[in-house]
Design goal:
heterodimer, A: alpha/beta, Rossmann fold, seven-stranded mixed sheet, 14 strands, 40% helix, globular, B: mainly alpha, two-stranded antiparallel sheet, 13 helices, 2 strands
Chain lengths: 439, 308
């Protein structure tokens, strides 16, 4: 009997310690802070893009963590994640410097040392590839908002979701646009003979992303029956592009297509100018061609240049929420949202919506929520129909409701160089300048 | 004139201009090696200093980048002299390995200082008399003003240095120091000052080159490595310490870098689809490194050097 009382006493003492100290959790309390690792190129040649991406993600986190009645999206209605007791989003930024191996190391660090709930990143497709492989190995969810290599969602990964449409859609948009140009569908331009747009030449940087774009250009040129005279790959972060440009202008191209990050894009246009290139169309596959530095550095030289984009400030005219968020972003950074910042914003917005739906930080719950989520387009700053990830077929984790835009640099009434939408044709915000006036 | 001919002429002209620029990059390295038998691993970083000096000067004064050439030359000369008296002089007392590691350390120091001061983002001159200008000399052949000017300065500097070395008292003292420092000392030549002068001239030529390059070539703190490699390849090809050889070797390097363009023009003319699909632009510097490797293995004294 004595031993019974003694045992009971010991059990009670242990139980009380357990309750107070949390050795045996009675019910798991919701975390006060949800850590999300954000891996972007914050230094190096793409540092300008990195700044934009960071500002976009930070703004989304700010809207999520505070009640903002002026913003017409669900995450602005509550302070923090409502389903997790108002837990605040905390972003932990890491700089991959454009280095895939460093990106993978940083992902491990975020998962093992910082214990992040998930990861957002990484802009460079090559880095996204290695980081997502780490996340897959550790079973940690990763959302990618801005890498557009189609291969990324063709690996059958279970922990990787991509909100942005990828290069296949964007490149096809370009060829649909060229066809539209020959059919007189482009605002302000009479039907253009196809021969004026030919031959097409392309130059893409030789990392994962550029190589894929180059391949897609070849495929689409064949599909839409355009003559592709040259399609070259050049070393990324090239210090000199005169040999490449010389080769590009040799067949006297009607259309020149590029996939370049910012330092290459600026150098490319400068070299085109000094080598006196005069195509009728110059089109950049977003990235460097859409960064604020591209505009501020090259000024009048880029009037008439086209770029694939996902966000143009003038779409605020038709999309209220885009205008509201753009106003906040402009207040924060001094310039408008661009393709990179808008997608980074949307990537984090997707994270918030998924956590809200999951109501838990358990990876399995997040995975289930991501696979079943549907964010309507009306809540997005980008002109997509929404966000819904594919869970079957050959593109697991790809947002199937995204779409691209094509913008053209034009001068506004006050002489500023702004991006005007020329595609989709129904969303055109200005008459297109055709042909490119030259340098 | 057909597309093939004009394409070829354009490639030859561009390769020549770039080659002369690469020769100028290597001039300083070959002077220093010629006089002191020491390899300066920080040579590319000297060039980077010249590029940043030019950008700083034109930003602060609002003057054209061309006006910064004397400033860049002074910066380069002082940098060279300071490096000699502050570091190289002491390294010379040690074994060869100390000299190698010493200038390697200098390279890291300059690179990281630049990273600290300027950050890692690439910068380039966006405005200026030369920037973005070019001339069409007929049949669509374009001469870029920036490269034409740099090539012109390369010829001027090579001629000036050759003249100084062959026709002035100081030059003869430098040559004497290069041939036999001990004998030169016995003859009353202040060899230490000559060494410092070689570093000064080497520094000045490469910073002038940097100031010309920044009109068409972006600078970042890591740019030095590429130019150090190109300069090494040029000096190896031309023969270590051989100034004339460096000039010709620079031109060869220019042609090596333009191999992808020659290939492209040729395959376009042939019209073979399979050949046209092979693009070599991703490997353009590989040809330079390959030539460097081959010359070191099969002709270590260079194409224009004399076998010891």
């Amino acid at each position: 009997m004595k031993s019974f009382w003694k045992t009971s006493l010991i059990v009670c003492v242990i139980a009380s310690f357990a309750l107070v100290g949390g050795i045996v959790p009675t019910a798991k309390a919701a975390p006060k802070v949800i850590k999300i690792g954000v891996i972007y190129p914050l230094t190096g040649p793409a540092a300008a893009a990195g700044r934009e991406l960071r500002a976009g993600a930070e703004l989304a986190a700010k809207i999520c963590n505070n009640v903002m009645p002026g913003i017409d999206m669900p995450m602005a209605k509550n302070a923090g994640i409502k389903a997790l007791g108002g837990a605040k989003i905390k972003l932990i930024f890491k700089d991959h410097q454009g280095n895939p191996q460093l990106g993978a190391d940083l992902a491990k660090q975020l998962i093992k040392d910082d214990h992040v709930v998930g990861i957002l990143g990484c802009y460079y497709s090559s880095v996204t590839k290695t980081v997502s492989a780490v996340c897959e190995r550790y079973g940690v969810p990763m959302i990618n908002g801005s890498s557009t290599s189609p291969a990324l969602t063709k690996r059958g990964f279970k922990w990787f979701w991509r909100t942005t449409p990828h290069d296949k859609y964007f490149t096809e948009d370009l060829f649909k646009f060229l066809v539209g140009l020959t059919q007189g569908k482009v605002k302000g331009v009479k039907p253009v003979p196809k021969s004026d747009l030919e031959p097409i030449v392309s130059a893409c940087e030789n990392t994962e992303w550029g190589s894929h774009v180059s391949g897609l250009i070849k495929t689409m040129a064949k599909k839409y029956h355009f003559k592709l005279a040259k399609s070259i790959l050049y070393a990324a972060k090239a210090p000199d592009l005169s040999a490449e440009v010389q080769s590009l202008i040799e067949p006297k191209p009607g259309t020149m297509l590029f996939a370049s990050y910012i330092s290459d894009a600026i150098l490319m246009v400068k070299t085109l100018k000094s080598m006196k290139a005069h195509p009728k169309i110059i089109w950049g596959q977003d990235a460097g061609f859409e960064k604020p530095e591209f505009r501020s550095t090259l000024k009048d030289n880029i009037v008439g240049v086209l770029t694939r984009t996902v966000f143009i400030p003038s779409i605020a005219k038709v999309k209220k929420v885009a205008g509201e968020v753009n106003a906040l972003y402009k207040k924060k950074t001094g310039h408008d949202l661009g393709g990179a910042s808008a997608r980074s914003f949307t990537g984090l917005q997707a994270w918030v919506a998924i956590l809200e739906k999951a109501g838990s930080t358990n990876p399995k719950a997040i995975q289930k929520a991501a696979n079943t989520i549907m964010i309507p387009g009306e809540y997005l700053v980008v002109p997509w129909k929404g966000i819904k990830f594919s869970t079957s077929g050959d593109e697991i984790g790809q947002n199937v409701l995204g779409s691209g835009m094509i913008g053209q640099y034009q001068k506004d009434a006050s002489g500023n160089i702004v991006l005007q939408a020329v595609y989709p044709f129904e969303l055109a915000t200005a008459k297109m300048i055709y042909p490119f006036k030259g340098f | 004139m057909g597309a093939f001919t004009s394409g070829m002429i354009q490639s030859i002209v561009s390769a020549l201009l770039m080659g002369m620029v690469f020769a100028l990059v290597a001039l300083g390295l070959t002077i220093i090696f010629g006089v002191m038998n020491i390899v300066n691993f920080a040579h590319g970083e000297f060039l980077m200093v010249g590029m940043y000096a030019c950008l700083l000067f034109s930003t602060m004064t609002g003057l054209d980048t061309l006006a910064s050439l004397p400033f860049a030359a002074i910066v380069g000369f002082l940098l060279g002299v300071m490096c000699y008296y502050g570091l190289v002089k002491y390294l010379l007392r040690g074994p060869m390995i100390a000299q190698l590691f010493g200038t390697f350390g200098l390279m890291l120091l300059l690179r990281n200082l630049a990273l600290l001061i300027f950050g890692s983002e690439p910068r380039i001159a966006h405005h200026g008399i030369l920037v973005g200008r070019s001339f069409v000399i007929g049949h669509g052949i374009v001469l870029e003003a920036t490269k034409l000017t740099a090539a012109g300065f390369s010829i001027i500097l090579f001629l000036t240095v050759s003249w100084i070395l062959n026709h002035t008292k100081v030059g003869k003292a430098l040559t004497a120091t290069a041939l036999n420092a001990e004998a030169a000392r016995y003859m009353g030549i202040p060899t230490e000052r000559m060494n410092a002068l070689a570093w000064g001239i080497g520094g000045a030529t490469v910073t002038i080159c940097g100031a010309l390059l920044v009109n068409f070539w972006p600078v970042d703190p890591n740019i030095g490595l590429l130019f150090t490699m190109i300069a090494f390849a040029t000096v190896a090809l031309g023969g270590f310490g051989n100034i004339k050889g460096a000039f010709y070797a620079g031109i060869i390097i220019g042609f090596l870098i333009y191999i992808p363009t020659f290939w492209d023009t040729t395959t376009m003319a042939i019209g073979d689809k399979a050949l046209r699909g092979i693009h070599l632009f991703s490997f353009k510097y590989t040809f330079v490194y390959l030539a460097y490797f081959l010359i070191m293995v099969f002709r270590p004294h260079g194409l224009f050097g004399i076998k010891e």
